[in-house]
Amino acid sequence: MSKLNKDILFLIFEELVQDDSKSLFSCLMVNRLWCETGIPILWRNPWCYDIDYSKKNYLFTIITSYLSDDIKEFLTRQGIQLPLVSYRSLLFDYLSFCRSINVDTISNITSIGSPLDYNQFLLQQEFYNLFMKKFPELKYFDMKSIKHQIFYFPEARIRLESLCELKCDTSTDSSYFYGLAQLCQYIQRLIIANVTKNYYGIAKLIEVQKNLKYFEWRDNEDLYVPGPNQDSYREILFALENNANNITHLNIYFIYISRSSQKILPKFHKLKTLITSFGSLDEQQLKMCVYRDLEIFKINHYNLKAASIIIENSGERLKKILLEPYELLEDVDNFIEDSLIFIRNIHKNCPSIEYLSLIFSPSNEHFEEIEKLLKVCRNLKLLLLVIFDHTYEDSTYSYEEKNLKYGQELLKILINSTSNNNLKEIRFCGGCKFSLGALGEFFEKWEGRTLSIITSNYYIYEDEEYKELINKYKNNGIIKDFRCDTYTNVVNMDSKI
Question: Which domain of life is it from (predicted)?
Answer without folding.
Answer: Eukaryota
